[in-house]
Automatic annotation (TrEMBL):
Name used for this protein in its record: Glutathione S-transferase
InterPro entries (alphabetical): Glutathione-S-Trfase_C-like (IPR010987), Glutathione-S-Trfase_C_sf (IPR036282), Glutathione_S-Trfase (IPR040079), Glutathione_S-Trfase_N (IPR004045), Thioredoxin-like_sf (IPR036249)
Native organism: Candidatus Filomicrobium marinum
Boundaries of every GST N-terminal domain copy: 6-87
Signal peptide annotation: none
One Pfam family cited in the UniProt record for this chain: GST_N_2
SUPFAM superfamilies: GST C-terminal domain-like (SSF47616), Thioredoxin-like (SSF52833)
Length: 226
C-alpha cells in the first residue's frame, strides 16, 4: 500500500459493527491507514481529545488532515471518492440509488433492532414481552427480505460486492455471535436454526468471509476469546 500524506487515521472498536464496516472498506480498497483501536470500556471515547474528533463520543471516527468524519457510512463514502477502485457505491445513478436504498433500509429498520437485542444480551438484561415480540417480528421480516434479495444475486445489490454488503454483514455476524451465548436464551430469538431459515443469507455470509482482506479487518479480540 502506498503511503497517503496526510495519513488516513481510523479510530475503531474491536467487535463493533460500525467500525468494522469502515475497516472492511479500507481493506477491500487497499487503502493505507493508521489504525487506532479504542477500548470503549476505558471511556476514552468520552475524553476531551476524542470528543474533539467526534462530539457524540461515538466510535468510529476518521481523520484525514483537516477532514474529520464521525459516521461510518460517511467514512465509507469518503473512502470511495478518494479510492474509487473497486467501486462500492455503483457505477451508474440507478446502481448508486439501489445501494443507498439497501444501506438506508438497513440502518433504519434492522440495525436498531440488532443494536437493542445485542445490548440486552451483552449486559444480561431482559426485555418486556411486548418489546421482544416487536423486535422479534422486525428481525425475522428483515432477515427474510435480505434472504430474498440473495436468491436473485450473489451480493445484496447485484453480482458485485457493494457498500450494502459491507453495511449489513458486520451486524449480522455480531448478532449471531451474541445469540449463541447463554444470556440470549431468554430472548428466544429463534436464530439457532438461522442457516435453515435463511440459507441464502448464510451462503452470502460465507462468501463474504472468503474475501481477501476479510481476515485483516476481523475483530482481533474475537480471535482471542473465540
Ligand atoms: N451511527 C454511528 C454509530 C456509532 C456507534 O454507536 N458506536 C458505538 C460502538 S462501540 C459507540 O461508540 N459506543 C460507545 C458509546 O456510546 O459510549 C456510526 O454508524 O458510526
Amino acid at each position: 500500500m502506498t503511503e497517503v500524506d496526510p495519513p488516513i487515521e481510523i479510530y475503531w472498536v474491536s467487535g463493533s459493527p460500525f467500525g468494522w464496516r469502515v475497516l472492511l472498506m479500507a481493506e477491500f480498497k487497499s487503502v493505507p491507514y493508521l489504525s487506532h483501536r479504542i477500548d470503549t470500556a476505558s471511556g476514552k471515547q468520552k475524553s476531551a481529545a476524542y470528543l474533539a474528533l467526534n462530539p457524540r463520543g461515538k466510535v468510529p471516527a476518521l481523520v484525514h488532515g483537516n477532514v474529520i468524519i464521525g459516521e461510518s457510512l460517511a467514512m465509507m463514502t469518503y473512502l470511495e471518492r478518494l479510492f474509487p477502485e473497486p467501486p462500492m457505491f455503483g457505477a451508474t445513478a440507478v446502481e448508486a440509488a439501489h445501494i443507498m436504498q439497501i444501506c438506508s433500509e438497513f440502518v433504519c429498520y434492522l440495525e436498531p433492532v440488532i443494536n437493542r437485542l445485542s445490548t440486552a444480551i451483552s449486559r444480561n438484561k431482559s426485555l418486556s414481552a411486548a418489546a421482544l415480540t416487536a423486535r422479534h417480528g422486525t428481525l425475522h421480516t428483515e432477515f427474510e427480505r435480505l434472504n430474498e434479495l440473495l436468491q436473485k444475486s450473489q451480493w445484496l445489490t447485484g453480482n458485485s460486492l457493494s457498500a450494502a454488503d459491507l453495511t449489513v454483514y458486520p451486524h449480522c455476524k455480531f448478532l449471531l455471535r451474541l445469540a449463541a451465548r447463554p444470556a440470549a436464551v431468554p430472548l428466544n430469538l429463534g436464530l439457532s436454526d438461522f442457516a435453515d431459515l435463511y440459507p441464502d443469507l448464510t451462503t452470502w455470509m460465507q462468501r463474504f468471509e472468503a474475501l481477501p482482506g476479510y481476515d485483516k479487518a476481523y475483530p482481533p479480540h474475537w480471535r482471542e476469546t473465540g
